[in-house]
Amino acid sequence: MKFRTVKNGYDPEEVEQYFKRVRETYDETLVSQRDRIFELKDALVRAEKALAEYEGKKERISAAIDSALSKADEIEKLTRRKVAKELATLRNFHRRWVGYYARLLEKYPLDDELEKAGNIGDELSRLLGAADEVPTEELRTDGFDPVGMIEEHLAAEGADDEEDFDYDAAAHPSENLGQILRDLGLMFGDDEK
Predict the structure, then answer these.
(1) CA distances from 174 to 38, 48, 169, 171, 193 (A)
(2) Which of 141, 147, 146, 148 has the alpha carbon at shortest distance from 73?
(3) pLDDT per residue over 50-75, tens digit each?
(4) Is residue 68 included in any domain, yes or no?
(5) What is the pLDDT of residues 134-178, one digit of tens each?
(6) In terms of pLDDT, which residue wins out, 102 or 5?
(7) How far apart are CA 121 and CA 114, in angstroms?
(8) Where in the sequence is the domain holding 146, given as residue range(s)?
């Protein structure tokens, strides 16, 4: 903008009007920018609040997933333990069945009924053979599992023993309890107290 020249420089009235327009434009721009700053601050507060809510949801979802995975592991371990126990029971039953069937064959001649009974033993052998194809590592649980160790020990003892469970012997064991615990892996060291 050019100002008219008057006797001692520029026309003061034009300069004043120019400064007034510049000030008004400046004030309008300043008010507009201030409003925009307040809008942006409000938007930032809303965004931070939404972010905090999502972070809280993320933590709750992560905790739920961790809990579900932990429960799944627990269920898997329990299932593996039950499968191992059932297989041990079935093997024990099969062993006893084969012995019983052999005694039947000694006493009675082979007829259709005895042949059917023999087929049951064959089918059990086939099923247990299929179960043996599952690697034992898949049936085992990781880490220290005293309940599983006791169940495995009892299943192994039951599979080897010809005799039934004796409650009196269990209530009054003749064996050293420390040795039993060491055999089960529940007690370490050789010192007996």
Answers:
(1) 86, 71, 7, 10, 17
(2) 141
(3) 999 999 888 888 888 888 888 888 88
(4) no
(5) 555 555 545 555 556 666 666 666 555 555 555 566 666 676 767
(6) 102
(7) 11
(8) 77-184
35: in domain? no
* Domains identified in the chain, total number: 1
Contact yes or no for 18/1 (Cβ under 8 A): yes
**3-state DSSP of the chain:** CCCCEECCEECHHHHHHHHHHHHHHHHHHHHHHHHHHHHHHHHHHHHHHHHHHHHHHHHHHHHHHHHHHHHHHHHHHHHHHHHHHHHHHHHHHHHHHHHHHHHHHHHCCCCHHHHHHHHHHHHHHHHHHHHHCCCHHHHCCCCCCHHHHHHHHHHHHHHHCCCCCCHHHHHCCCCCHHHHHHHHCCCCCCCCC
Q: What pLDDT does residue 93 have? A: 82
Question: What mean pLDDT is predicted for residues 88-95?
Answer: 82
Higher pLDDT residue, 124 or 14? 14
d(CA 121, CA 38): 85
